[in-house]
Amino acid sequence: AFGIGTLLGWSVYHSEEEKSQWGRSVNINGEEQSTGDWMSDNINASNIKENLRHLTIKPHIAGKQQNVKLAKDLYNQWSGYNFDRVEMYNYSVLLSYVNRSNFNVLKVQDTNGRDLFIA
Q: Given its phi and psi angles, is residue 113 left (phi above 0), alpha (psi -120 to 50 degrees) or beta?
């Protein structure tokens, strides 16, 4: 998800000329380095494991407080990566949550209204 979000965000805000140069090299502190070399030098399994642990240690249901906390954590983390811009948007979406006192059920009934299957 991080990689997809990064690529999508990058592609929206960069010109066609900049996009045609993507993947060839990166400039880190004035030093040109191939993208592949930079990635192999800077991506490691322990970082991936720790990031996944942080993102999945608690449930984060869409629209709930824990999900907002994770979004803010990612915003703060990405802000430290020297991206051109990091933005977080608020939006409203109609979501349906489980009503624990009145569960929805699926019933298969025969023509007389008898329940054949309930899920």
A: left
Q: What is the pLDDT of residues 26-70, one digit of tens each?
A: 777 778 888 777 777 778 888 889 889 988 998 888 888 998 999
> Is the separation of the CB atoms in 23 and 15 below 8 Å?
no
Q: What is the residue type of 39?
A: M
The DSSP-derived string for 70-105 is HHHHHHHHHHTTT-S---------------TTS---
Contacts of 34 (CB under 8 A, 6+ apart): 24, 25, 26
Instruction: Report the alpha-carbon distance of residue 34 to residue 13 in Å, rounded.
Output: 22
pLDDT tens digits, one per residue of 99-116: 788 878 889 999 999 999
